[in-house]
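Try this one yourself first.
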């Protein structure tokens, strides 16, 4: 019983994580997300005075 569950978890777990990785890569490289990621990358460089709030 343990060997069966272990084999199932290894096989389908690997497939699941590969699928999730491909989804994350597709999301990151999707053209419509480019501007959002570009803005997030430049956010630390924006010079904002703390007294402006």
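Now uncover the answer:
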């Amino acid at each position: 019983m343990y060997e069966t569950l272990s084999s199932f978890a290894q096989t389908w777990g690997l497939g699941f994580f590969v699928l999730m990785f491909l989804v994350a890569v597709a999301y990151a490289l999707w053209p419509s997300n480019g501007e959002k990621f570009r803005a997030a990358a430049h956010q630390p460089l924006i010079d904002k005075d703390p007294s402006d709030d």
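Discussion: The CA atoms of residues 17 and 23 lie 10 Å apart. The two ends are 62 Å apart (CA to CA).
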